[in-house]
Design a protein that fits this description.
There is one protein chain. The protein has helices at residues 17-30, 37-55, 59-73, 80-95, 104-112, 125-135, 152-161, 176-185, 220-225; strands at residues 4-7, 116-122, 143-147, 169-173, 189-192, 212-213. The protein is α/β, with parallel strands linked by helices. The chain folds into two domains: 4-15 and 99-227, HAD superfamily/HAD-like (Rossmann fold, 3-Layer(aba) Sandwich), CATH 3.40.50.1000; 17-95, Putative phosphatase, domain 2 (DNA polymerase, domain 1), CATH 1.10.150.240. The protein has a six-stranded parallel beta sheet, with helices on both faces. Helix 3 (59-73) packs antiparallel against helix 4 (80-95). The longest helix has 19 residues, at 37-55. It starts with a strand and ends with a helix. It binds magnesium ion.
């Protein structure tokens, strides 16, 4: 029934958002003298959203957005020292080891024999390439696709290029907005595996039906066994 399975990377195969939220904690502490935590969160999210069209997704854009927010909330009085601290936060994130989620390797190994596996991840090309390499998972995938946005057109283009009929394609990921809704729109199937933190920008109302939800990738091979679209 399902030939090809697409996997999201961030927060599906490896931890990611926890690193952002940890850094955002440090950001709030650093700028605590200028604004309350809620205001800092809100202003940063607004700046990040407005900057997506300039920088796309990823750590580099996040750093620039933290700097912009810091300038903003201090009315331009943020110190060079604090800006250097924000830049250092970003470098720490970029150098952070890639930590796989529980059960990822076993699930991929169990599925590899019967399905073609694709890695479809969104974000900064350089950082994503580096994470894929450091994850040690690259060999398990027939192809790795790094894209700047995950919408229905993106999925159609990828499936087309790999000669995959959307009806025989299943996408697995933690984001309803990026891994479920656009895949269903493109005529494919989707499995949502929630991560314990979701970036506010990725939050979306799940569809009433037409997709599956599991708590961990460990449950994926069994779900595929009995999968009936
Ligand atoms: Mg993700």
């Amino acid at each position: 029934m399902i030939d090809t399975i697409g996997f999201d990377g961030d927060d599906t195969l490896w931890h990611n958002e926890s690193l952002f939220s940890m850094t955002q904690d440090r950001f709030r502490t650093l700028l605590g003298h200028a604004a309350d935590p809620e205001t800092l969160n809100r202003r940063l999210l607004d700046v990040e959203r407005a900057n997506l069209r300039f920088y796309g997704y990823g750590i580099k854009g996040f750093v620039l957005s933290m700097i912009e927010t810091a300038i903003d909330v201090t009315d331009g009085r943020v110190s060079g020292h604090d800006i250097a601290t924000l830049v250092a936060f970003g470098k720490t994130m970029l150098a952070h080891p890639v930590e796989l989620l529980d059960g990822v390797e076993a699930a991929l190994d169990a599925l590899a024999g019967r399905h073609r596996l694709l890695l479809i991840t969104k974000g900064d090309l350089f950082d994503q390439e580096s994470k894929v390499a450091r994850s040690g998972l690259a060999e398990r995938f027939a192809a790795v696709e790094i894209v700047s946005e995950k919408d229905a057109a993106t999925y159609r283009r990828i499936l087309d290029r790999h000669g995959v009929d959307p009806r025989r394609f299943l996408m697995v990921g933690n984001s309803v907005r990026s891994d479920v809704l656009p895949v269903l729109e493109a005529g494919g199937h989707a499995v949502h595996v929630p991560y314990h933190v979701t970036w506010a920008h990725e939050e979306a109302k799940p569809p009433a039906d037409g997709y599956r939800r599991i708590d961990t990738l460990r449950a994926l091979p069994a779900l595929l066994e009995e999968f009936r679209p």
